[in-house]
Amino acid sequence: MGIVQWMNSIAEFGEWAAGRKPVTKKEDALRFGILGAANIAPVALIIPARSHADVIVVAVAARDRKKAETYAKRWGIPIVHDSYDALINDPSIDCIYNPLPNGLHYRYTLAALKAGKHVLLEKPSLSNAEEARSLFHHSVLSAPKAPVLLEASHYRFHPAWRLFRAQFNKEDAEDVESRAGLFAGAFDSSDIRWNYDLAGGATMDLGHYALSALRGAFGTEPTKVTSATARLRDPPYDRCDEAMTATYTFPNGGRGRMSADLGTRGGYWFPWLTSRWPSFRDCLASVTVRTQPQALGSENGLEKSEQKMVKFTNFMGPHGWHRIAVTTTTTLSDPTSGNPVKKTRSTEKKTAYTFPEVTASKGEEWWSTYRYMLEEFVNKVKGREGSGAWIDGEESIRQMEANDRTYEKAGMLVRPTCKELE
Ligand SMILES: NC(=O)C1=CN([C@@H]2O[C@H](COP(=O)(O)OP(=O)(O)OC[C@H]3O[C@@H](n4cnc5c(N)ncnc54)[C@H](OP(=O)(O)O)[C@@H]3O)[C@@H](O)[C@H]2O)C=CC1
Ligand SMILES: O=C1OC[C@@H](O)[C@H](O)[C@H]1O
Which residues, if any, are the signal sequence (predicted)? Predict the structure, then answer.
């Protein structure tokens, strides 16, 4: 069983252990079809849909009908289509979930939008910025009653992300480090993540989260990619990065660093023996922000200033567990020499599992990032007020631009563009 299938089992076990039963569906519930018998679809859509009265997963298509039938039976999906195009053109379907390999996102999302379907599109939205500009600026999205298109960067929809962002002013961010990792062996050699033609690579995969969170912390785009170093897969997969580390500067003068590793190893005692062993140490994604010191006036003749460090641990999967640690360092300094006289440090730990301040779509403590995202997708399609969390097309384009610039700085090719680009 691969890591993504494990995510499904854990999510399903959680539902069972909590004794949750599917809710009754409304008459006008949105009917979803899934492109591909994808590993990620249960945790990202099928399980969250069970608790949403406005969502029914009605169809799946796979390249091999037998595979689709087995998947449909396992996950309780009534309709099986013979091809992705047949599913897209099924008039009984309102929404398409596209969890195909990244290199197929453009072709099938555009086909679905042209068929009038709303699309929930897996991250990274596309293979590169050229595709992103073409898709998100396509006339099909500006026509009256245009369908909804959303990049499924699920972590941005969870209340914990909003709480994290509220802990500092983005203009004050001085140093931000964002990291995500998975232990070596999590994906075998046949995995889509090692296929350049399907737009694979660590920067496209976990790098998507690390870079998106870094950009999200600064709330703006990097002015420059100052360094980028890739660790490539062994041939013949060496057009794909197994790991990427990159540094950036931002318009406020701040510095950012992202790292994404799909094959963490070592870090144990006896390195001569253990250096190739998979390592679980760096597998919890985190984003850490250090702010510029803020002057707070004077106290007893001394100058007072404050600096914050905000660390959000497990920002990718905060529904399982997370911690936002806010450490405030207060310094009293001699006004003449500028030397610190006294420093005090305090740490506050915070969490958020619902949006208490929101009237519509407040959420439930147990909702996953995917469930929160589904809520907002449905709200948008139905024209309802929601939590306010959203990822618009321009954001998705800027994310792909930052991705491309990272690959270029690392001396690598950007991922290939769909041949049918419009
Ligand atoms: N949001 C999240 O937490 C996660 C998101 N993802 C994203 O979801 C997408 C899919 O990831 P994941 O579910 O792990 O991937 P899978 O390996 O399960 O692949 C998804 C589907 O791609 C289809 N496919 C079509 N053409 C090919 C091809 N040439 N080679 C291989 N597969 C093909 C297969 O469909 P068929 O059934 O027709 O054979 C397969 O079911 C990616 O964009 C990934 O970045 C992945 C994991 C987590
Ligand atoms: O989006 C993702 O999240 C979880 C990871 O296991 C996976 O590689 C990635 O695609």
Answer: none
